[in-house]
Design a protein that fits this description.
By secondary structure, this protein is an alpha+beta fold. The chain contains 31 helices and 40 strands. The longest helix has 29 residues. GO terms for molecular function: 3-oxoacyl-[acyl-carrier-protein] synthase activity; holo-[acyl-carrier-protein] synthase activity; magnesium ion binding.
Length: 1140
Amino acid sequence: MTDTNASSDRLKPYVIAAESQPQLVANLRALAGGESATSDPHAPERLVIVADGEEALRLLATRAADRLERRPDKPIHDVGGIYYYPEPLGLSGGIAWLFPGEGAQYLGMLQGLDSQWPEVESVLQQCDGFARQIGPPFQSLRYFIDGWLQDDRDRGEQLLRRLDNAMLSVLSAGWCLSEVAKMLGVPMQAAAGHSAGELAALMTAGSMELTTELPMFANVMNQMEVQSGGGDAELLAVAAAADKVQPVVFQALATAGMSDQAMVAMDNCPHQSIVVGRREATRRVREAIEKAGWIVEALSLQQPYHTPMFAPLMDPLRAAFDRVGFRSPDVPLYSCATGERFPDDSDQIRQLSLAHWHNPVRFQSLIQQMYADGVRLFLEVGPRGNISSFVADILRGQPHAAIPMDTPRLSTADQIVHAAAQLAAHHVPIQLEALDLQFRQAQGNSFVPPSPREAVAAAIAPGSDSVMSSHLETMQQLLAEQSDVMQQFLVAKNAGRTIGSRSGRRATAGNRSRRRLAAAAALPTDDILANESLWSGEEHAFEEAASGGGGGLPRPELPLLGEVSEFEPGMHLVMHRLLDPAIEHYATHHTVGGREVSAIRPEQCGLPVMPMTFTLEMMMEAALQLAPERVVCSISRVQLSRWLAFYERDPITIRIEATLMPADDDATTRVLVRVMDTGNREEPFGDKPKLAAVGTVTLAAAYPEAPLAQPLELTDAQQCETTLKTMYNNLFHGELFQGVRSLAKIGKQGIESTIEVLPRDELFRDDRPVEFLGDPVLLDVAMHPNAAWHLEQPDQTGRIMLPFEVKSVEFFGPRPAVGTRFECHGSLDEQSPRHFTHSVVSIDGEGRVWNRINGVRLWRFYLPFHEVNFHGPKNVYHLSEEFATQASAADDAIATARFAWLDDLSQPTLLRAAAEVLLSEQEYEDFIDAQIPHAEKVRWVFGRVVAKDAVRRLWHQQHGQRLYMSDIDTRHDGNGRPYALPRRAQHPSAGDVPAADAVMPNISVAHCNKLSYALASTARRVGVAVHPIAEVEEAHVAEALLPEEVSLLSACENRERCFAAILATKKAVAKATGLGLLGDWKNVRVIACDGEGQATAEIAGNLLAQLPAMAGHRWTAELSHDVDGKGDGKILAAVIDATV
């Protein structure tokens, strides 16, 4: 074995080689047993393991040996860290470098690269210099790696979407990764780029003679005015290959006499192409495509890029390219415009590079030609990994590997280790030693990269700005949208497959409306579209599972088993289970977000998730199948990395893998069990399921002797004052889990209590026998008293907790009978600002331990608790606070709300849980169907939170009733103004709630930097707006202010504060009218404002023309100063006008 990395604190690749496969297996067995194995790295049989320590290495070596013995003719591509290819591609073909274009960038790209590859620091320093030279809002690459973590994420996303930042971040990221690839000695035997990525390919292949550096390119884009979109062009994304789509397009246009009005402009892979044309033509085309049965969606783009229709706009670009020096590339370079190699003549290269912008993208032809020319390995040198998925689809069925150097799934430093391991397993001659920083440092200058080539050449001529700017912005959207179309195809392709369903139900609700593909452009790319590598000879694990059937288990009666897809008795087991809440009723009694959330629909509750203890039981049941004559004594080293949620509309399927491990002694059997989320129709994970839990189950011939329990030593012991009702009001467990019978003594170290074994007959809706190995309900119940301990503590911050790790769970006897009571000792082991660690002991009536749960580590979530109980009754608490206005203080017909966004609640799963309990049915449907970036979903939900809180306060002031948030339905009128409806309108039989015809309040909502505000009134026109206090830009003054307002601003002592006040007043008044600003700041005239107290305004311009009855009406805005969590100031303007 060759350890290629001397450092011990991170992933390393280990090369295990041998002259034959049996000897390779023997070497792996020796390694698994802790022995050293002689290994010639140049031997013909080579397997590479990626591990972060000796224990992981031994475990993976065992798995690899098992796989080779079971299927010696199959490759192993286990992204957990095993790579073996019986026919290594590095011996039979070449390797190409592929460069993605804009749209591949994302926040957090290149994570960990600078610490493990400090040699790229020179690149980062140059990027820092670019940023200083150009100035804001341009940002250095370092900002998008990790600098944004110190900033507002929304701001980071906004900056990354800017044209200059998008393009330069992708080029700079590719530059960094190119340097790493050079240090690893990865051969570059060919190169190509997708769309604008062709520019990077031209540079890296030495074809562009650069006379300036990246700042020139950034300066040009920084000055570009993004074209809003002209003409009547439309782009259609189609989930089919160009050669299938083109005849349909041709026939549709020929029939309509519009043959030159649309065409296939991008051929990306067999399951994705893009049609571009004039709107009337694309309407005809779309009808024909839908009739053919393909998924199609219009993209939010309006320019005819990559078509002859773009040629009239090319003159400025042609002049710019004429200034760039070109030469014959150092390696074969392929063009997206032709799908062929670039010519050697420099002028022809220039012309073809220019023609790329108005010719179709032929990426599928390009990859096929590279393959025909002998390329077998494709290294994606850039962020995200999208292009690798296209390659995998194009070459499916043919031996190849597509390997990204950066994916969002792993840190870039770790992804590079996996990429290098794959290349080494394919016998690519690379220098794995270069992965070790200490080795590189010891070698002096041997691994210092050469000076990077100058990145860009020639100034863009005046007049080209808008054309190039519009193209680059378009491509940023397009790549993301292409990935979504690809995902939609793959989802649709497998829509009818049912895996692991005990009841035979399909794994989808089936009647969902089709999602808008175009709106999903900014959503994170799914792992199915960012494959590390796809070996075409290896079948998809799910497809094998589907054909394998089930049955054959020695203990099939256990309740949490799934359908068997692989089973080697005593060695290995793979099962799949559909998590269907209609059958697994226990999940509906374990709901994140609470249970009492609606008076209209009492059954509504939070998001059902699998309890940790049920996950442990499932792992134990799987392990027992490999040693059916034994009993489970413990499960240890449990890591919980993903919630397993139960979705009614679209259930997920999970995969359970159990593998025999080397035993510590003859008396015990150890089984490693992994539980993985394979996704659902909405979000399929393909051959990259998400790890949810992993742990080691230990079995023996009999349970160990139950020890006598030790007393729980409590300092300052006293009777617990928290009642069971209060405790369960602060948990999210329903009746099936409410098994605590009494809370006794409590002290600094923990709490004593009594718990009872609950009935199990209602846990499932089908007729399965419920014969658990342990008792997952009782184990869950045993941890409930710890919640009472926390409720007794004076500091309630950060005490919403969820488990993520368990040291061990020990069993000293079989499952107890229903009704059995145990004394329970819960202890606090340690605490930190982010974690608590608890242990629990369950003691039987004879004073002996039945079960110990040791070292449960819980993540602390900083949501408001006593003031706002996230899990408690939702009609009692408000998530927001009030903000003061003179009018609201004097009038109970007005209510206010101020909501500081909660970072923990912004996380995707918690946000989904919040949506379950805070939104009405219609709002929830809109939330689920909204294909928008996550940051916008957060704003969408929090905007409704603050609006509903204002309405609830007002309703309580006027009627004495406390409403649930979910019983209020918020909508927007035709002008975008929010309003509220009583949810009773859809549920006429509901009880004490607003009548269907109740007069609901007017609402106004405003947001700024993770702060949201709302005003509500039943008798007043209201408008609220907020504007940050910042440096005043003269261009903004000229755009927003009338001449008399400029005079007001000049008279203010605090110019920044006054400008913010004027703009906030304009927005607030416009909102109060119900029409908004109508796209022009000058439609509201501020008459008086000094930045303090009040401002006076009147409507003007087009707004007055639409509301002539308001001529001469003076509006008063109350002004106040606020500060967000970062200390940044802002002006809040509240308009509360005359009676409606």
